[in-house]
């Protein structure tokens, strides 16, 4: 996944004069701590689809899961480009992040067990997954797991000073 430092730039067009670029380790910490994300995918007819979900930051990528019949999974079959967002619903405090990348299916059971442990550590026992045959299993259903290594991330510092940082990978 993402194993190198990105190119970091403060966009002065959208930042206060006193703002500085947010360091990537701070953005990574915010991604790891965030409880809720919104994923944007593209429907077969080109219309956007947006829905909330849980995600885990691990090994330089955001990971999420979804049932194979859910709209986002069906959208990803045709177009793997996604945007994941997280932050606060306030204007003048907090920090928002927008992660752009490609959703890649994770099927290795060893890696899935690591991710299942990370899910449970972050969200509690209600999110306990068994792993078999390249899927998460929970109750009577199974879920596909995807990794999104960022290509570009945008960070929006809100409050004094307002600032917009962009991190580019690759």
From TrEMBL:
GO molecular function: coenzyme F420 binding; oxidoreductase activity, acting on the CH-CH group of donors
Keywords: Oxidoreductase
Annotated source species: Streptomyces aurantiogriseus
Protein name as it appears in the record: Pyridoxamine 5'-phosphate oxidase
Pyridoxamine 5'-phosphate oxidase N-terminal domain segment(s): 26-154
Pfam families: PNPOx_N
UniProt key word Oxidoreductase: yes
UniProt-listed PANTHER family: HEME OXYGENASE HI_0854-RELATED, PYRIDOXAMINE 5'-PHOSPHATE OXIDASE-RELATED FMN-BINDING
Region described as Disordered: spans on this chain: 1-20
The UniProt record lists the keyword Cell division: no
InterPro entries for this protein: F420H2_bilvrd_red/Heme_oxyg, Pyridox_Oxase_N, Split_barrel_FMN-bd
GO cellular component assignments: cytosol
Amino acid composition bias (Basic and acidic residues), ranges on this chain: 1-16
């Amino acid at each position: 996944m993402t194993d190198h430092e990105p190119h970091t730039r403060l966009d002065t067009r959208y930042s206060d004069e006193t703002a500085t670029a947010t360091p990537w380790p701070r953005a990574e910490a915010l991604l790891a701590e965030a409880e809720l994300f919104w994923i944007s995918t593209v429907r077969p007819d080109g219309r956007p689809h947006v829905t909330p979900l849980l995600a885990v930051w691990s090994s330089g990528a955001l990971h999420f899961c979804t049932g194979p019949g859910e709209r986002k999974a069906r959208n990803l079959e045709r177009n793997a480009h996604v945007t994941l967002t997280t932050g606060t619903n306030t204007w003048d405090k907090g920090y928002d992040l927008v992660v752009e990348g490609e959703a890649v299916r994770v099927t290795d059971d060893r890696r899935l067990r690591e991710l299942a442990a990370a899910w449970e550590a972050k969200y509690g026992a209600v999110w306990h997954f068994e792993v078999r045959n390249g899927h998460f299993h929970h109750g009577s259903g199974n879920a596909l797991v995807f990794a999104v290594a960022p290509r570009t991330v945008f960070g929006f510092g809100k409050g004094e000073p307002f600032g917009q940082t962009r991190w580019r990978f690759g």
